[in-house]
Design brief:
about 110 residues, mainly beta, four-stranded antiparallel β-sheet, three-stranded antiparallel β-sheet, globular
């Protein structure tokens, strides 16, 4: 299946998923990641599963591209905590990347 999300400003995002009866939905990516709560007022938890042996790098950026934080991940699966308490209200991006793939998640700080 291909899912496309559009907003009124003509921005869009397309993602392709494979449905398998034994495992439900499989992302075609090497990285599965969820960030919560979103929106946040403080802490953000990043739950991840790397489908490869590479270590990963997690970086947090603001909307002008400044890197605010970074952390190395050495486990294939886990949860990392990031403190957004010192950040101003606004939009931020968490990027998790390996040598071969990456995912970016938009975080809203209230």
């Amino acid at each position: 299946y291909t899912v496309t999300i559009n907003n009124p400003n003509d921005c869009y995002f397309t993602e392709t998923y494979t449905v398998n009866s034994a495992t439900n939905i499989l992302d075609d990516s090497q990285i599965s990641v969820i960030a919560f709560p979103n929106p946040t007022t403080g802490l953000v938890y990043l739950e991840y599963n790397l489908n490869i042996e590479d270590n990963a790098q997690v970086e947090i950026y603001n909307t002008v591209g400044e890197k605010l934080d970074e952390k190395q991940i050495f486990n294939k699966k886990g949860v990392e905590t990031f403190d957004f308490n010192s950040y101003s209200v606004g939009i931020y991006f968490i990027k998790i990347s390996t040598d071969s793939d990456y995912r970016t998640i938009k975080i809203i700080k209230k």
